[in-house]
Amino acid sequence: MAKHEPDLSPLFHALADPTRRSILTRLAEGPAPVTELARPTGLRLPTVMRHLSVLEEAGLIATSKDGRVRSCAIVPEALTPIRTWLDEQRAIWEARLDRLDDYVTQLMKERER
């Protein structure tokens, strides 16, 4: 991996779990306390806290504490490296498919002759 490329593994690991993705989807609406994030999952609070820890370590969320209430907020710019990587991959594969299309078109024209 080139030195300028960020390590995408923690981001993809964080996004690999459906519970964490649903938490991010909820946080896209706005910050929320941990108890609110835990409620729809049906999971115990320590389990949800582990999921939040993975999201925070990947830089996808930020947490804050006000008294006894811990709240979370999404960090949308943390998805930029993934978006950049996916755009690069899309460009590579579109170029390959374009070349394949050109090749097949050329073969078809030669076959018609």
TrEMBL record:
NCBIfam families: HTH_metalloreg. Transmembrane segments: none annotated. The lineage of its organism: Bacteria, Pseudomonadati, Pseudomonadota, Alphaproteobacteria, Rhodobacterales. It comes from the Bacteria. This is Winged helix-turn-helix transcriptional regulator. PROSITE patterns: HTH_ARSR_2. One of its GO terms (molecular function) is DNA-binding transcription factor activity. Pfam families: HTH_20. Residues 1-94 form the HTH arsR-type domain. InterPro entries: ArsR-like_HTH, HTH_ArsR_DNA-bd_dom, WH-like_DNA-bd_sf, WH_DNA-bd_sf.
